[in-house]
Amino acid sequence: MKVIPLPLYHEKREGKLVLADIGFSYSEELANTASIFRDYLRKEAGISLREEKFPKINFLLDFNLRPEEYRLEISEHSLNLSARSDRGALYGVHTLIQLLEYGDGKHYFPAIYIEDAPHFSYRGFMLDIVRHFFDKREIMHLIELASFHKLNYFHLHLTDDQGFRFESEKFPRLNEIGSRRRGTILKDGTEDGIPHGGYLTKEDLREIVAHAKKFHLEIIPEIDLPGHTNAILAAYPELLCEGVNKKVEVRTSWGISKDILCAGNEKTYALLEELLLEIIEIFPSRYIHLGGDEAPKANWKNCHRCQEKIVNENLADEEALQAHFTNHFGKFLEKHGKTVIVWNDGLHPDLDPKIIIEHWKPGTRKRTVKAANSGRKVIMSDFLHLYLDYPHWMTPLAKTYAFDPLKGVEKPENILGVEAPLWTEWVASRSKIDFQVFPRLAAAAEVAWTAPELKDYENFVSRLQKLYSLYEKMGVNYARNKEKKPSILKRLAGTRRWWKDEDSEFRKN
């Protein structure tokens, strides 16, 4: 059975269901997924399903199943897909798409019985549209691909030093100034001099959210605070700390800026609260991501207002001030029914226990696991296994597949799941996105979905060819010939080439 991610249980049976002159019925609660299934068969196989009273294909509602669970039973006479929800039915359809075969001039499904449900409740992908801007059409295509891999969260990184990527009616300078930079840094350290900009309008965002809802993905917006905020500070320099006597511009280079929002300035809190209200208006997600990574504190140490805030709030130091800053917005968003996520840089003893940590940083896993074992909810986005922006030499497919989110964890219920991020410093096109993401996202999806005891890399590789053929039909420029486990010397050499030329691997695909 060539299905990725591997189902929880399957049993092959004799025979096949030929798709010719075939009827279809579905429970009304599963109408959305039924429409997706019919459209796929019509467009990809030229098959039209007709509704009839006693059909061969049935999508059935079963309240005995869990919300994301589905069951699939195919014989030479019928196909029954059972699910408790439209979401579960959609996962069943994504399995059916991979099961569909063609032979002797006809399309058919092999006879099989499947029981399937995800191992983790959180299965995510993150797209950075700041370093390089990607528009609504490109995002919606990636939403469909994420759903196809049975992911359920799409984390959209919307703000950073290099740009501000969503429309703000309350603070128009964020778009007039913050969404544009004068150029972009190259690997040799020079600047290309080509202006780069763009942002998503509120109407764009509503369309993206609606499209994600159709494919059962929840869009999690991220506004990175208090660091990675050069674009905000370029637009509203009054939010800089005292003593910073320079003009901050939208950053053209990557890395970490020392300029961060002033945590002692009440104007900072007022602007961000209004900005978050604009985000809440658009995104129905239960989660809002507030970044919190890579925030140097030099400006805070030299800022009278920040030091006064530390004294007035009885805080230990600048790290405690960041926890206080994050807690403020955590409480603000909680009043609006939202839960905050931050990168694990923001993990601090004073951090509100309801705030979720997204683990990424090398060398900090023990600290993250300790937090999970103490009750903190955690999403695993391990840099060394799940960051998709680095070359395949550095993070081979096998390494992504081998990631164990529960290693060292005594309370697995506190690990919500996994997320694979794509940062776009060196990713400037849709074709390059595809190359970086696929098939590594398939490996990450199996880490998130499949029971750990069922995972086997060689078996996974044997299932990839069918997935590759579907990628080609979908127009996905996936990375070819990445299944082998390269030696450490080859990995080092390939990574070294990438550091000098970010497209060295991409051009050979």
Question: How large is the count of helical segments?
Answer: 17
CATH A-level architecture of the largest domain? Alpha-Beta Barrel
> Count of DSSP E strands?
20
- The fold-level CATH name of the largest domain is TIM Barrel
- Report the oligomer: single chain
Main beta sheet, described? 8 strands, mixed
CATH uppermost class of the largest domain? Alpha Beta
How far is the N terminus from the C terminus? 28 Å
User: What is the strand content?
Assistant: 15-25%
Give the domain tally: 2
Supply the CATH superfamily name of the largest domain.
Glycosidases
Q: Give the % helix.
A: 25-40%
Report Rg. 24 Å
Principal-axis shape equals globular
Q: Taking all residues together, what is the mean pLDDT? A: 97
- pLDDT < 50 stretches: none
The structural class is: alpha/beta
Can you put this structure into words, describing what you see?
The protein has 509 residues and is an alpha/beta fold. The chain has two domains: 9-116, Chitobiase, domain 2, CATH 3.30.379; 122-492, Alpha-Beta Barrel (TIM Barrel), CATH 3.20.20. The chain is 35% helix and 19% strand. It is built from 17 helices and 20 strands. The protein has helices at residues 31-45, 86-99, 136-148, 173-176, 202-214, 230-235, 266-282, 298-301, 304-312, 318-334, 365-373, 383-386, 397-401, 430-437, 440-449, 457-474, 488-500, and strands at residues 9-18, 23-26, 50-51, 57-61, 70-74, 79-83, 101-103, 106-116, 122-128, 153-157, 159-160, 163-164, 180-181, 196-197, 218-225, 287-291, 339-343, 356-359, 378-380, 415-422. The strands form four sheets. Strands 1, 2, 3, 4, 5, 6, 7 and 8 form an eight-stranded mixed beta sheet that branches. An eight-stranded parallel β-barrel has the order 9-10-15-16-17-18-19-20, surrounded by six helices. A hairpin with a 4-residue loop joins strand 5 and strand 6. Helix 1 (31-45) runs parallel beside helix 2 (86-99). The longest helix has 18 residues, at 457-474. The protein is globular and about 75 Å long. The protein starts with 8 loop residues before the first strand and ends in a 9-residue tail after the last helix. The mean pLDDT is 97.
